[in-house]
Amino acid sequence: QVQLEQSGVEVKRPGASVKVSCKASAYTFTNYFITWVRQAPGQGLEWMGWISPYNGHINYSQNFQGRVTMTTDTSASTAYMELRSLKSDDTAMYYCARLRNGWVIDSWGQGTLVTVSS
Amino acid sequence: DVQMTQSPSSLSASVGDRVTITCRASQGISNYLAWYQQKPGKVPTVLIYDASTLQSGVPSRFSGSGSGTDFTLTISSLQPEDVATYYCQKYNSAPLTFGPGTKVDIK
Predict the structure, then answer these.
(1) What is the pLDDT of residues A65-93, one digit of tens each?
(2) In Å, what is the CA distance from B79 to each residue of A37, B32, B44, B75, B107?
(3) What b/e readout covers A73-88, taking b as 16+ CB neighbours within 10 angstroms?
(4) How far apart are CA A31 and CA A106, in angstroms?
(5) CB pairs under 8 A between A and B
(6) What is the spatial distance between Cα B79 and Cα B59, in angstroms, rounded to a whole number?
(7) Best A4, A99, A103 residue to mutate vs chain B (most B CBs within 10 Å)
């Protein structure tokens, strides 16, 4: 079945950057958009943006514009999300997910916990 | 941007009760609405899409309705395994905004 395997826990200092990876398997990577969603501890879901592995088309949430970069490596069926200038309130679980036709999320990665602390 | 609100923010109901959660969009989004369930400590999963289409494998006690700006998720007979937070999400266009969530537990 569809799997999205994310990289492991990250601990970063304020001002640093983090890059989370998301390796897809059991489907044709270029046929589906990848989206990123984050969830701060005890809080709700926040959409960060999406990327098309087929043509690189990107749409970032205004909340992250200028601080986030989403990329893909189609040869490795892997998506990446880099967040820069980290602050303590960027501490969250970061999920990659697959968007099927109509932009519904039908598969999620297991999440990557990013902690920002001095 | 379209804002999504949900009510109530939390509820407590008895096993077997009918539970209704409301989601409202600040502008019309046709039927481009999904409902997700997130059980404690778990990854979200989709329950309903296109406002009223049940995702394959989801129990039939879950149903969705609505169009435009007002939507509902109904659990016809609450079960212990339904303890979770439920989120609506619009997907007519970016940003794919989520509602703030409704936490459901058992009385």
Answers:
(1) 899 999 999 999 999 999 999 999 999 99
(2) 28, 27, 18, 9, 11
(3) eeeebbbbbebeebee
(4) 13
(5) 54
(6) 11
(7) A103
Q: What is the 3-state secondary structure (H, E, C) of B63-84?
A: EEEEECCEEEEEECCCCHHHCE
List the beta strands (DSSP E) in A1-118: 3-6, 10-12, 18-25, 33-39, 46-51, 58-60, 68-73, 78-83, 92-100, 104-108, 112-116
Give percent of chain B with pLDDT exceeding 90: 99
* Tokens (6 digits) for A99: 């968007």
Tell me the shortest Cα–Cα distance from B88 to chain A, in angstroms: 10
| CA–CA distances in Å: residue A84 to residues A18, A27, A109 | 7, 30, 21
For the cut 90, the answer to whether the pLDDT of residue B89 exceeds it is yes
Residue B44, class by beta-carbon neighbours within 10 Å (0-12 exposed, 13-18 middle, 19+ buried)? buried
In A92-111, the residues whose Cβ lies within 8 Å of chain B are 95, 102-106, 108-111
